[in-house]
Design brief:
about 250 residues, mainly alpha, about 70% helix
Length: about 250
């Protein structure tokens, strides 16, 4: 058992390090880019690193605090990306290669109008809502059946990998109308701003960095709650938790 004073000291040190890194990434790097001291390529590259940091945080929360190794976290990450990508594809308008007000791959597949399920994604608010809802719903359904069946250990890992592989095959199919194996390309605008302009990319970098920070704080808080303590207890000794009156399913 770590004394409370040591825990508080470690927490302050951790938050101090996180705060310093956040200040450097959110303030210093964009400022250096604005003055031409850091290239746009570097900002884009670090923006990708930050996006993958969100994925890493989810793996850390699941594997580190519950002991469940998921080989399918990329599926939920990709589902959110697809939801936002649909909005970005809608923002291209008639500026695509075919000059039609629908995505180019739909024109290539012989479509003359937008499929019904694509239409709500003209709204940024709706798309951002789906970024959270769709992966969350898939995870809820999968988790319900997996945990109710008490799937653990390597079997859970294999099942998540199989789910991801099945989803990849499904998304590669052109008749799903989600871009096939080419995915979504040639993004042009977001909220009316040119997505390729340095100022927009800088703003997206800052937004991504802030999102990573907020998700880190959320995970940190969740791990410190009673829910987080129970998850770690299940990881360390599931039978003890069951005998203590908790439903570990």
């Amino acid at each position: 058992m770590i004394p409370a004073t040591n825990r508080n000291r470690r927490l302050r040190m951790e938050l101090g390090i996180v705060g310093a890194l956040a200040a450097m990434v959110i303030v210093v790097l964009p400022a250096l880019n604005a003055f031409g001291l850091v290239s746009d390529f570097t900002i884009n590259l670090w923006g990708k690193y930050l996006c993958y940091a969100i994925l890493a945080l989810s793996v850390d929360l699941l594997w580190g605090h519950t002991g469940l190794l998921s080989l399918g976290q990329a599926l939920f990450f990709a589902l959110g990306g697809y939801m936002h990508g649909m909005y970005l594809m809608r923002m291209i308008g008639d500026l695509g290669q075919y000059g039609k007000p629908i995505p180019d791959f739909l024109v290539f597949l012989g479509w003359n109008e937008l499929p019904t399920f694509w239409k709500p994604f003209s709204s940024f608010t709706f798309a951002m809502l789906m970024v959270v809802v769709v992966p969350g719903l898939v995870a809820l359904i999968f988790g319900y059946f997996a945990f109710r069946s008490r799937i653990r250990g390597v079997y859970f890992s294999i099942l998540t990998q199989a789910l991801t592989y099945a989803a990849a095959i499904m998304f590669f199919r052109n008749n799903l109308l989600m871009g096939g194996n080419n995915g979504f390309t040639d993004f042009k605008f977001i909220l009316g701003f040119d997505i390729n302009s340095p100022a927009t990319q800088r703003a997206l970098f800052i937004a991504t960095a802030v999102t990573v920070l907020l998700i880190y704080l959320l995970c940190r808080w969740l791990a410190s709650t009673k829910f987080g303590l129970v998850q770690r207890a299940i990881r360390d000794g599931e039978n003890r938790v069951l005998f203590s009156g908790y439903n570990a399913a």
